[in-house]
Design brief:
seven-stranded mixed β-sheet, five-stranded mixed β-sheet, 2 domains, Rossmann fold, globular, alpha/beta
Length: 407
């Protein structure tokens, strides 16, 4: 994941004219903690997993970033994601720096009790570097509001006081926001709608969405409400397309019931890679990083690519897309709705103000539309790509803050 971030940030810093010392400062992580996490299985056997928390930059404020449970977790991958979080928070004008954490574990075979104990053990060992004014974790891959509730309780037991602002993405009963689940998809829909309106605003543009999990489903529902035609969606097991537009509400319900997209009454069913041949206005990768390689960039049939996932387009893939005249709407803008709503949760927890869904939705919409407009205007004014414009804005804010702190 670090390839596209680590390629564009040095270029951006050069354009901004920062010193070599400051460039090195902003490219390196400030702290990386690694700890062995013990887990007592239900059988009584004790096993161990490697746990990590990587903190990239705190010039703008406390670190912010998710915790994931996945076998592929490494310190290097987390460092790349922490850097991405720094630029995302900066672009969205949030008072946070970037962090990321996780455990190298496959959580699927674990019982609920084992997942609870693992979550609490992770929090206990990372406690020295966490806190509402230091580093505020959130859910990520294979973690959710339940996990954050367990960790929030563990934090309170370790600190001796209840601090709901120490983590975000918590259950509503513990100070979380009900809107958090749909925030990333809603924010992405706001960006896409704004881009479409600025381009032409006419007709009913078509979309394909790769990845029909939480983000992909909410994004599809939001776009359909705005008059977009969702022609095709896919997941790791299959794809389904309908030239007249899919019934997203029904498809989402059936996916929840069955776990798959094999529902031929709603459209043509085929293998996941078949999504590439569907001609659309907007192709939206909302699943894995690095999914659009150069070969794939050559065969995609679309007029725009929208990064709802983190870093789905490789640098080489983006070069080919741009050569084909296909702009890329960058991830640090498109999928920033989740961390922005986490910021609203953190604010509410600190003040004791419980915010309702309408209020949070309106605040997110206002911010996403405004910042998307800023990125689009800068790209047009300076003749840059949307990614270049977004990074010029984001990196400059961090660079200025770092210089103000350290000289």
């Amino acid at each position: 994941m670090g390839d596209i971030v680590d390629s564009i940030v040095p270029e951006t810093l050069d354009r901004l004219g920062v010193s070599s010392a400051l460039e090195e400062r902003l490219m390196r992580v400030e702290r990386s903690l690694e700890s062995l996490i013990p887990l007592e299985l239900d059988s009584g056997e004790r096993v161990y997993f490697q746990g990590f928390r990587v903190q990239h930059n705190s010039a703008l404020g406390p670190y912010k970033g998710g915790i994931r449970f996945h076998p592929s977790v490494t310190a290097e991958e987390l460092a790349a994601m922490a850097r991405l979080m720094t630029w995302k928070c900066s672009l969205m004008e949030l008072p946070f720096g970037g962090a990321k954490g996780g455990i190298a574990v496959d959580p699927q075979p674990l019982s609920p009790g084992e997942r609870l104990r693992l979550s609490r053990e992770y929090l206990f060992r990372m406690y020295p570097v966490l806190g509402p004014d230091t580093d505020i974790p959130a859910p990520d891959i294979n973690t959710d509001s339940e996990t954050m509730g367990w960790m929030a309780d563990a934090f309170s037991k370790r600190s001796g006081t209840w601090r709901p602002d120490a983590l975000t993405g918590k259950p509503v009963c513990l100070g979380g926001l009900a809107f958090r689940e749909e925030a990333t998809g809603f924010g992405a829909a706001e960006v896409i709608s704004g881009f479409f309106q600025k381009e032409s605003g006419k007709g009913h543009p078509s979309c394909s969405i790769e990845g029909f999990g939480n983000v992909g489903q909410h994004l599809a529902l939001q776009l359909a409400e705005r008059g977009f035609r969702i022609l095709c969606v896919s997941d790791s097991r299959g794809a389904i397309a309908n030239p007249g537009g899919l019934d997203i509400g029904t498809l989402s319900r059936l996916k929840g019931q069955t776990g798959h997209l094999n529902h031929p009454t709603l459209g043509e069913v085929f293998t996941p890679d078949g999504i590439d041949r569907i001609d659309v206005d907007y192709f939206i990768p909302a699943a894995l990083p690095r999914s659009i390689s150069p070969d794939r960039a050559k065969r995609l049939s679309c007029r725009h690519v929208v990064e709802a996932a983190n870093a789905p387009v490789t640098p080489e893939g983006e070069k080919i897309l741009l050569e084909r005249g296909i702009p890329v709407l960058p991830d640090i803008l498109v999928n920033a709705g989740g961390v922005t709503v986490s910021y609203f949760e953190w604010l509410g927890n600190r003040s004791g103000d419980r915010q309702d869904n309408d209020r949070v939705r309106d605040a997110l919409s206002t911010r996403m539309v405004r910042i998307a407009q800023e990125v689009m205007d800068r790209a047009k004014r300076e003749g840059r790509t949307l990614r270049e414009a977004a990074y010029l804005i984001a990196v400059n804010r961090v660079a200025v803050a770092q210089s103000a702190r350290e000289g």
